[in-house]
Amino acid sequence: MRAAVLAAPVLLALLAAGEAAAKSFYLPAASVHITVEPDGTLAIEERTTFFFDGSFTGAYRDIPLRDGEQISDVSVAEGSVRYSPGASAELGSSGAPNTCSGVSFQSLNAPSASL
What pTM, to 2 d.p., does this model score? Predict the structure, then answer.
């Protein structure tokens, strides 16, 4: 009887660990709209839909830039809710709801821009 009592918590812990590790995500939709402005700059609107299954605290987007390229006027939103800067970009961290990081929301000129 004592072995059965000890085995139950171990079995429950193993089942919970399996559930916690079971997570995935995919991108069911993505679209990019590019407009060449009269001054030669590009206005780019990218919409990406993430589908998360399991416990996630965010998503990561890296935009590689070549020398001389820059990004400005960046925004992040979910539906009609626009995110504000303030979260940490460190892997495994989390921030307040509706916040993002890695974007200064001003002109960026770096080897890559992370959203």
Answer: 0.57
The pairing of beta strand 81-82 with beta strand 77-78: antiparallel
Task: List Cα–Cα distances, 8 to 23, 59, 86, 94, in angstroms.
Answer: 25, 36, 43, 33
CA distance 64 to 20: 33
Q: What is the DSSP letter of 98?
A: T
Give the number of other Cβ atoms within 10 Å of residue 87's Cβ.
19
> How far apart (Å, rounded) are the C-alpha atoms in residues 53 and 71?
31
Handedness of CA 58, 82, 105, 31 (dihedral sign): positive
**pLDDT tens-place string over residues 26-49:** 889 999 999 999 999 989 888 888
Tell me whether strands 77-78 and 62-64 are parallel, antiparallel or unpaired: unpaired
Helix (H, G, I), strand (E, B) or coil at 35: strand
Contact 98, 86 (CB under 8 A): no
Strands 42-53 and 24-36 turn out to be: antiparallel
Q: How far apart are CA 25 and CA 112, in angstroms?
A: 24
